[in-house]
Amino acid sequence: MTGDFLQSSIRGLLARIRQHPVWPFGASLVILCALQWAYLTQIGMMNGQSLSTFQAGLIALCHWLPYLPAYYAVHAVFEWGPKNAPMRIGSGLILFAGLLSGLALWQTVSILTIVPSGHAFTTLFNAHLRTGLLQDAIGLATIFFLDHLKRRPGPRKAMPKIEIKDGARTRQISSADILFIEAEDYYIRVHTLEKSWLLRRPLYEMLARLEAFGCMRVSRSAIVFVKQIQALTRDETGRLVAEFANGRPVTVGKAYRKALKEAWSAQQVTTYE
Known about the structure:
Elements: H1 3-18, E1 30-32, E2 38-40, E3 44-46, E4 49-51, E5 54-56, H2 71-77, E6 93-97, E7 108-112, H3 119-122, H4 131-151, E8 161-166, E9 169-174, E10 178-184, E11 187-192, E12 196-199, H5 203-210, E13 215-219, E14 222-225, E15 231-234, E16 240-243, E17 250-251, H6 257-272
Antiparallel strand pairs: 1-7, 2-5, 3-4, 6-7, 8-9, 10-11, 10-14, 11-12, 13-14, 15-16, 16-17
Helix pairs in contact: 1-4
């Protein structure tokens, strides 16, 4: 499910909720949720039980429940009083995990009720909550949360292995160990911290294979792994040079300087975040 589709679905759900002003579970029912884990300390007595340091995972309204598949299971647990009187739950707290898992936004919905005197929540909440304000807050929180999901990096792909002829035997080296690759006539030389190997393969073919893993061209005859660069300096003629752990510098072509500087700076920020 894409973020845009999910966002559209939630907006539609909010519109439907506003068409039903009557609280399905009575005004005494409060659903606490939060997109970030929140702590509520000493909420109060709930049907004879004291609840302290409560972790909840969203802020929503009871209006959400009638639209959830688990609604009827929840409904069966409660005892309704005459004329839709506030419900009574023996334990005072029922924790439902994953009621909104279908929306992939909420991990936990906590359903809390107050005792007949109503003192459990009136201390913290005014009992006359503006449902519209809460609904709007959920809508905004949802949009921010979806934006956060879009910015999260996707799953990492496994780094490919390169087959190398090492004397009489063939071995595979991980591309994660490669510092840079240089063209030598009809061959390429693959440099690692340990040693270098000569392969009969075009440089452009290797770049196409490794570009998605942070490898980029820095000249017509060299490609480098940006994360392996230890420093960017200038040589005696003023040319930009990339330095690596094996002590071998690589000269950066003028056409590639800006792109490499930006990529390397971004790599440093990512490393220290």
